[in-house]
Design a protein that fits this description.
mainly alpha, Methane Monooxygenase Hydroxylase, Chain G, domain 1, 13 helices
Length: 278
């Protein structure tokens, strides 16, 4: 009979009395005990874990976006590239999560949908913070967070900081691109409005990438991120339509119609539009 492998024979620690264990370091007790279905439906656990894990990935995305913004402001572009690549990979993970949720049928969702009451994904504080951080600054979306002064204050504070896209424009100007002064001095609390002059400046980067290599790579990192972000939104629409059809959302939105309107939002419009003229 073969002998069973004993990791302790190679020096692995097997006892953790008074020492930090894997579960201690990750605080797994509160994480794994944070799932509280409100119905007896089997699939409610899937729904809760899907959204909780998505929020954890968004927390990491915010961590990386904030660091990338600081690196770009400090002209440390190579450092920012690594962080922005990671953000794109995070949204790739978020995209894959929809595949798991789509295993739930309309009948299975209906068995616990009433438990959600008026809660809805469009109320996600972290999702809104990501949008504000990168430049999609819709002030109307502050209202769902007014009942939580701490979250509302954090969103307002984010609006007081230049967005990632604004910081990118300032960096481009420092490196010689003719970004107009009224763009550089604009009220960054307001939503970004696409400007043909900014498009023309970045088009020059794409026409002469060897001359502007770091800006060229920065632009492509932003496009990579928005590519995955758009796919995430599209997968959201498809999943919702597959599971609830054209019913209104639990939070009172128009459901699929609302989500389809969100597909029209551009985070970095000039970097997409310039491609037509190349």
């Amino acid at each position: 009979m073969p002998r069973r492998y004993d990791p302790s024979a190679e020096g692995a620690r097997m006892g953790f009395e008074g020492r930090m264990s894997y579960g201690d370091y990750l605080h797994l007790d509160p994480v794994l005990s944070a799932q509280h279905p409100l119905s007896d439906a089997h699939d409610e656990m899937l729904f809760i874990i899907q959204h909780q894990t998505s929020e954890l990935w968004m927390k990491l995305a915010l961590h990386e976006i904030g660091a990338a913004r600081a690196a770009i402001a400090g002209d440390r572009l190579r450092m920012a590239f690594k962080m922005l690549t990671r953000v794109a990979r995070i949204f790739e993970q978020l995209n894959s999560a929809w595949d798991v949720l789509r295993t739930m049928t309309p009948s299975e969702y209906q068995s616990f949908r009433a438990s959600l009451a008026e809660s809805s994904g469009f109320q996600s504080f972290q999702y809104r913070l990501i949008e504000y951080a990168v430049g999609n600054r819709n002030h109307a979306m502050l209202k769902p967070h007014e009942h939580r002064p701490d979250l509302h204050a954090a969103l307002v504070a984010e609006l007081e900081r230049p967005s990632l896209y604004d910081v990118v424009q300032a960096c481009a100007a420092r490196r010689g691109l003719p970004i107009p002064q009224d763009i550089l001095g604009r009220d960054t609390r307001q939503p970004w409005a696409a400007d043909p002059r900014v498009e023309a400046a970045w088009a020059e980067v794409y026409r002469n990438p060897e001359t502007h290599w770091e800006l060229y790579e920065l632009a492509e990192k932003l496009v990579d991120f928005e590519d995955y972000f758009r796919r995430w939104r599209f997968n959201h629409v498809t999943t919702v339509e597959r599971i609830i059809g054209f019913k209104r959302g639990t939070g009172g939105t128009a459901g699929v119609q609302y989500l389809r309107r969100m597909l029209e939002t551009e985070l970095f419009p000039e970097l997409w539009r310039l491609r037509t003229g190349l």
